[in-house]
Amino acid sequence: MIIGSINMKKVKIPDLLLGTIWTGWRLWVVWSVCIFLSLLIVSFRIATDAEFDFASLSVLPVFVITWIGGRKHGVFVAILASSMWLIGDILAERIYSTPLIPWINAIIHFMAYSLIAILATQVRLQFERERECATRDVLSGLHNRRAFLEAGVEEVDRTKRYAHPLAVIIMDLDNFKQLNDTKGHDAGDAALQATAEALRSISRASDRVARLGGDEFAMLLIEIEYEAAIKTGREIFATVNAALKDFPPVKASMGIAWFGRADRSFSEMLKAADEIMYEVKKSGKDNVYSRRFPETSRSDTEK
Q1: How many angstroms separate the CA atoms of 296 and 166, rounded?
Q2: What is the domain count for the chain?
Q3: What is the pLDDT of residue 265?
């Protein structure tokens, strides 16, 4: 397995664009800014006796709130912006050919703002689909290598701050090429999908599960003590091998690297787990080896 160096930013552009960081107090700040902008626009309109048209500026809070909060929130802001526009026209005491003009203008503005909300929702959904495709392995539905590396870097940073232990598991399918050669690639794909489903069924919501490529899989177990990590690894090993009973002679080899503290980069952690897994390969395959880091005199092997 190729393990490259990792140099990721802590705050990623997709997180900003998808609004995943705009929760809690940040969301309230955005709402407050957007409402303040709407009030500022209507106040300026009243002060200038509706001489200046700032309808285009009201599109900004509608778009931002829709992008972060969804279509319903966007439509609410569209109603708010249109209402403020109506209030501004009425309070400006401007003379119109008919008293219905401010109401008609407000309805037109509401329709335009609502259209912006609908379009913003569709653009975001498309953006999310593209991002999902970029972070998911198509065959297995698990995270791909890139997403796993990014998640690992984030968890190592978090582990350094809060001094939580973590474990990295590398698993390789034994005799997978033999299955492909004798029963075809469809059987191989089915074995990979069965493995992925087994990993999903046994993993916690906080765990990161990925297909790194070919017949190699990885898991990142966060905030887990050594004994619990070994127990979990053995359960995963048993679950995967049970799922592979229909695909002889395929079995699994697994390496577990547990880290009491984040004393190295995530790529080095991944490399350590990979080396442990290859020790299993060299000693006969179909087994689980584990090691704790920083290394002690104790080493565990389980079949």
Answers
A1: 17
A2: 2
A3: 93
